[in-house]
Amino acid sequence: MTQTLLVNKSDFADVALVSTDEAPLADGFIRVSVGPWALTSNNITYMAVGEQIGYWKFFEPKAYGINMDGFGRMPVWGYAEVTESNCEGVSVGTMIYGFLPITQSFDMKPVKLTPLGFQDGNDHRTALHPVYNGYTFIENDPSFAAHRDLQPVLRPLFTTSFLIDDLLADESFFGAEQVLLLSASSKTAMGTAYCLKQRGNIKVAGLTSEGNKAFTQDTGFYDDVYTYDTITDMNPDVKTVVVDMAGNGKVMATVYEHFEENILYNCMVGKSHWDGAPPRTPKLGAPPVMFFAPDRVKIRMKKWGGEGFAKNLAALWLPFCETAKDWLSLEESHEVTDLLKTYKDFLDGNASPAKGYLFKI
Length: 361
Hints:
It is built from nine helices and 18 strands. It folds into two domains: 2-150 and 330-359, Alpha-Beta Complex (Quinone Oxidoreductase, Chain A, domain 1), CATH 3.90.180.10; 156-294, 3-Layer(aba) Sandwich (Rossmann fold), CATH 3.40.50.720. Helix 4 (151-170) packs across helix 5 and helix 4 packs across helix 8. The strands form three sheets. Strands 3, 5, 6, 7, 8, 9, 10, 17 and 18 form a nine-stranded mixed sheet that branches. Strands 13-12-11-14-15-16 form a six-stranded parallel sheet, sandwiched between helices. It is an alpha/beta fold.
């Protein structure tokens, strides 16, 4: 038997922990024990745009013999250990890193094997985006040698941060004087602010809740930090790029009303305010443009190649990890009750930005 967590796709607060029998392992497949993996606000975004972008499809319950209509599995990033193998080239005990369901174990079909990893060739996954379908043998990848515990919490988020910074710089910030990040205490926003700060040629401002303001300021990644109820304290004449991690239409409407035509670009990245009103089409200012990190990866991989991409990412990733000792503490639990409490905190916007959460059920 193995347990898995299911989420109602129309009501994220409705979750179910179900048990299923494990069938004999098929030829060409491996079975992995899942965890530890990280829970972040990014996982809420995956669900909020799950139908639009396809995140619900990666671990479709019916493809794994689980029949609960209307429910799906929220994807997470983390580690897994191979516990059984009928696949030549992947031995028991191998540790992998990648996109995972919240479950105790599941079966994968390694294809396109290289010394560094593989793609999951399960029938329902072959048409999905390879960025989310690739798995790394962590012992063979030197980028996992340091900060191993931080990797599930920060690595996928910082990769997005790196790509946002790269896009904005490549476009000369669309002529703006500042970048304004919403949900500024989120780890993806902080990573973006960190990258922008290293450039030194653009002002970096953040919008966050009153409760997270002091934490956000203390990171040192932002030049200015405002709260959602002090938006009008900002100078409306400053030409601004918005990077929206929150996805709250009400907040965004206020930002547009304040800056009007001085919003030169609006980069929609996340939806940490998952239950907020959808954004309205602005009367003045550049309309929102959805940012999809894998599309930017394709552009940079074509120009830099795999080795060049890894080198450029590592130049910022490793020092960013070093800063984490000053603002991030990790908590790991194997208790379902802890997982459900933390999950609810993320849904309600109450999870501490100063903590990283790792789980294994």
